[in-house]
Amino acid sequence: MTYSSDGNPDLELDCSAVMADIWLLLDNECDSAAKERLKAHIDGCSQCLSHYGIEQQIKSLVNRKCGGERAPEGLRERLTISIRHTEVRFRPE
């Protein structure tokens, strides 16, 4: 099922395409034209609006529970040392 913002069938976007791109919209990683098309579809499609709302809540929950946490200092030091000692070798075939 696909709908435009006025509730009429929309041939540009189908629900599977919108659901695949919801994270781009949530993370502000799409251009303004794509953002407008996605929002127009979501506003006119209750199924996609519901999915968008759920994904928005998940993103908010993850940010609340995991935001701002830093790795323990010992782990950070071990990783830094490991990165500094990493060698990259190229073997032509």
TrEMBL record:
Residues 15-48 form the Putative zinc-finger domain. It comes from the Bacteria. It holds the Pfam family zf-HC2. InterPro entries: Anit_sigma_mycothiol_RsrA (IPR024020), Znf_put (IPR027383). This is Mycothiol system anti-sigma-R factor. It comes from Tsukamurella tyrosinosolvens.
